Amino acid sequence: MKAVVYREYAPDDDYAKILKVEDIDDPKPKPNEVVLKLKAAALNYNDIWGMRGEPIAIPLPHVSGSDAAGDVVEVGEDVQNIKVGDRVVTHSNLACRVCEMCTSGREFDCAKRQVWGFQTGDPKNDSPLWGAYSEQIHLPEVNVSKIPEGVSYDEAAAASMTILTSWHMLVGRAKITPGQTVLIMGGGSGVGSFGIQIAKLYNCKVIATASPDKLEKCKELGADYAVDHRKDDWHKEVRAITKEIAKSTGVQPGIDLTFDHIGQTHFNKQLTLLKYGGTLVSCGATTGYDAQIDLRHIFFKGINVLGSTQGTKAEMEQGLYWMGQGKIKAAIDSIHSFEQAAEAHTKMLQGKFFGKILMKPEGA
Predict the structure, then answer these.
(1) Which residues contact 26 (CB under 8 A, 6 or more apart)?
(2) pTM of the model
């Protein structure tokens, strides 16, 4: 079968130099695994980290990709709930399922956790070249979910890790409640585009930030307001909007909940916008990790700063349910072939996209 393979790192981000479409062996399922014929796969920033060999040196050679959707074509002898022909989407969090963290509902904190397609692929573990960017893929039964009626393969692949992350941030960690004023940073990203829609599902006032070319698209997804976060005074515009909201609702001006994955460059200004008792939930830091923080905003206003990573399979399925009901949709920027893998990843690195970028094998 065909797969997108790299056999060396590209710390200079020259993806065309390392990404090659190669023939590799078809997967053979272990007793607890299913094999999928790939219909669509979505790019994530961990693909970039993997190809750079930082922050961890992932196994080489490598097939990347953590989000996929397809048809089940083979099942192992111990598989019970998935059958050949099922339309399924992947849940990329590989955990032991028996430790204290897993059994307490924190599978994302499992000491043995691996992100499929990012950290997987060690030949010593009998899973070489293990990721989404191949014509067939294999995963444990527990790491796939059936795709709801009305949700396409493309939409499911685009949602897999991102709707999981966004749902866990807003619902699982921040305990979003109806009527809040919510700030979605980076609303044009995969997680941001779902963040906007989840907050609207909870009947919140949503202010999204994005680059100028993405502001109208954020509003099309449901954001009530959209602000250019590349401006130095972007936070002043947000503050003015909260005052406008306060006039019509009678609530205190400010943000109840801010959804962050930008990090260093915008972190402290988000703290200044939060109300007393407000919450900042963060799942990443694409602009850098070394944020300067004025601690007075945290202790004096009683602010909650929450970390969040991935989520549970149940949370992914909750998001997929609402997609099936037509209340949340995947924002798909573009679709590329395996042969266009370098172009697709360069586009993601440059930030010239809205929502998710997909790849498909020929004929999918």
Answers:
(1) 1, 136
(2) 0.93
